[in-house]
């Protein structure tokens, strides 16, 4: 059985860390460093997507771009972290906009986000986050 791992990376630092971790664990994975808008994954299909997308706070809708792409390429499931405050929006977008069969919050978490951008005012912030499981509808892919 062929196992394929595709890892999408957003920042240079994340890429370097992923490369180190993959080497340490002796994993054979493909790392792709790209802006989600410029990524062409047509025809690429994987069983499961696990992601921690941007929360869409800094750039409105960034999280939705990731969720849309994940539901297009996954055949079995998408696991993703999203801010709890956006729960209803996430569910509606997944089920109605992106044609998911189901969208379920598996658990609620607290995420301590350190200051990483100049626009962040506080040294760190505690954010309520949901871990979601989405089931894509492979028959309704466009």
From TrEMBL:
GO terms for biological process: rRNA methylation. Belongs to the methyltransferase superfamily. PrmA family. Keywords: Signal. The keyword Isomerase does not apply. InterPro entries: DNA_methylase_N6_adenine_CS, rRNA_MeTrfase/Polyamine_Synth, SAM-dependent_MTases_sf, Small_mtfrase_dom. It comes from the Eukaryota. The keyword Ribonucleoprotein does not apply. Residues 1-18 form the signal peptide. Transmembrane segments: none annotated. One of its GO terms (molecular function) is rRNA (adenine-N6-)-methyltransferase activity. Residues 13-60 form the Methyltransferase small domain. It holds the Pfam family MTS. This is Methyltransferase-like protein 5. PANTHER family: RRNA N6-ADENOSINE-METHYLTRANSFERASE METTL5.
């Amino acid at each position: 059985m062929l196992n394929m791992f595709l890892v999408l990376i957003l920042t240079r630092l994340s890429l370097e860390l992923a490369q180190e971790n993959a080497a340490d664990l002796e994993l054979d994975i493909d790392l792709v460093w790209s802006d989600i808008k410029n990524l062409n994954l047509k025809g690429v299909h994987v069983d499961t997507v696990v992601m921690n997308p941007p929360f869409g706070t800094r750039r409105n809708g960034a999280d939705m771009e990731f969720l849309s792409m994940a539901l297009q390429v996954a055949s079995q499931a998408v696991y993703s972290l999203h801010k709890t405050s956006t729960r209803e929006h996430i569910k509606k977008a997944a089920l109605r906009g992106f044609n998911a069969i189901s969208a379920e919050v598996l658990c609620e978490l607290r995420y301590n986000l350190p200051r990483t951008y100049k626009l962040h005012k506080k040294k760190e912030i505690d954010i309520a986050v949901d871990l979601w499981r989405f089931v894509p509808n492979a028959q309704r892919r466009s």
